[in-house]
Amino acid sequence: MKKKLLGVLAATMLFATACGDDGGDTGNNEEGGGEAEGSEGAELDDLFVTVATGGTSGVYYPIGGAISTILESELGIDSSVQATGASVENINLIENGRAELAITMADAVQQAYEGSGAFDGEEPTDNLRGMASLYPNFVQVVTTEDSGIESIEDLEGMTVGVGAPNSGVELNARMVLEAYGMSYDDIDEDYLSYAEAIDQIKNGMVDAAFVTSGVPNATVIDLDTTHDAKIIPIEGEAMEYLEENYPFFSAETIPAGEYNNDEDIPTAAIMNVLLVSNDLSEDEVYEMTKALFDNLENIQGSHNAAQDITLDTVETGMPVPLHPGAERYFEEVGALE
Predict the structure, then answer these.
(1) Is the peptide bond before 216 cis (omega within 30 degrees of 0)?
(2) I need a surface site. Which of 87, 99, 197, 273 has the fewest CB within 10 A?
(3) pTM, rounded to two decimals
């Protein structure tokens, strides 16, 4: 009798368990969220997200810090900020699985995607995916009032800081010189980060430096405290050449008053973009994108340049496809055309 009763109870429990499983699956499919988001949150707890940025004196680093803080506080994700040599290194970190998010310049991303420029001879990294376009970087050719340099052509024969090798700054330096019919053969190039180059301008060892960043840039402000800093314009036929041959460039102006400039300074600009690892799932990237843009004011407060990050420009100048998770979020909030 006991054996028979135990058998009935066991069968009843198996039946109840089976019904419970079916009901759970059906509920998740029909609701399309709710419990699924809760389980996804548990998976997010297991993530470690490295945010690849740039030098600690640049703009990428504080913005990356704000991103990392939001992921930790809002989603419980363990995250760290990594100082790097910026764009090209960041792309390689994403590609090699050593970073999950990376701030890069659109020109470097396009070259990696196509296997051109700094990535010439390499297999195109066509699995790169974007989370969002961020803010424009301004190409700033920085010198001092007493240098005698008034134009890009005046850099001929001068010692010029062109950025760390294969950095986004260095790629820009080559393109801008090309637009003026020049190359490294015409200058004494010095492969210094822009922070190092600005220090060498102070010491009289470098005549000018390429600084590609948001504005204002802290190193340029620092130079202006001891010297009269000056930014050389990029305009006219050279600017037209850049837009025609490198469509990630756009003609912009550095507004009067950003430094000690009384007037707007015409120059070239390139969008900065946030890349995300294609190894992350759609749900993971959706939650991360939502958290960042739900707390956008925290990112905008990390640096003056970040105030240009808005939902209106998340696709502007993005040279690679958006990750499906980011695309899903932006479609939900009406940010995509």
Answers:
(1) yes
(2) 99
(3) 0.71
d(Cα 259, Cα 265) in Å, to the nearest integer?
Answer: 11
pLDDT band at 257 (very low <50, low <70, confident <90, very high): very high
- Cα 146 to Cα 228: distance, rounded to the nearest angstrom: 8
Residue 27 tokens, joined = 């509920």
| Joined tokens for residue 255 | 């507004």
Distance separating alpha carbons of residues 146 and 158, to the nearest angstrom:
14
Name all domains of the chain by residue range, CATH numbers in brackets: 38-135+273-332 (3.40.190.10), 137-271 (3.40.190.10)
Give dist(CA 103, CA 101) in Å, integer: 7
**CB neighbourhood size of 15 (10 A):** 10
pLDDT for the residue numbered 63: 97
In angstroms, the CA 48 to CA 262 distance is 46
What DSSP letter does each residue of 132-144 carry, written as one string? EEEEEEEEEEEEE
Give CA separation, 115 vs 121, 222, 246, 289, in Å. Answer: 7, 37, 15, 28
Residue with tokens 């470690």: 48
